[in-house]
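In keeping with the milestone schedule agreed at the kick-off meeting, the structural modelling team has produced records for the first pair of proteins. Each record is given below as a sequence line and a structure-token line. The laboratory manager (R.T.) confirmed that both were archived under the project's standard naming scheme.
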Amino acid sequence: MIIRHADDVPAEEIKWAGFSGMTARFLVTSADDNPRSALWLLEFRPGGSTDWHRHQEEHQIYLLEGEGVVVGDDKTKTAVRAGDVISTLPCENHLFMNTGTGILKMICAVPILSGKTGRQTSPCDE
């Protein structure tokens, strides 16, 4: 069993191509002898966003605070706020953006694929 406080996990600035104004706390990964699933705490500063992207891993996301938009394969911008749940499918294009004036904070559950650590995602075959 692993028990830790999120504040005890350092926030890391995400510097992936096209991502901005975003930090991640990798709360649980394979480094914790957890081989199948990771748990991330993501925080977006106002205006922060991911790039339009897709990957092999599905995500289950719960918004803890703030407001923003999520864009899926159909390119529709859907407003989201604290309390909303989002599930992205494997290889589904998506983008998240903070449109509010405060932090957009979310918990993200991510499966760990074979050979991965739970701190990154795997690109879809083009």
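The second protein of the pair:
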Amino acid sequence: MSAPEKAPNNKNEKTGQVLASKMAKTIVVEVTRRVPHPIYKRIITKRSKFYAHDEQGQAKAGDTVRIVEARPLSKLKRWTLDAILRQAVQVGSTAADQTREALPSVKKKA
């Protein structure tokens, strides 16, 4: 017999957008799926929210991420962050402040 083969990774994966990353080492991911209505057959969008563990705190709100099923980490967390697929454009206050400072101030007439 050769070396023992590694079992395939059968963990569930989901892809979604980060709604919030304000908790310590935790992100809230919204997963959307499009399914036909059971009676009317019209395509509808269903959404689910999952709490996922983010050890480094690298995911920000708006990012598209992949989460993987894990053992229960807390009352609500059963997922871990696997990868950040696409980073969202972060609107920073520093860029906006610099733009406002560069513009001449306009005073209103009384």
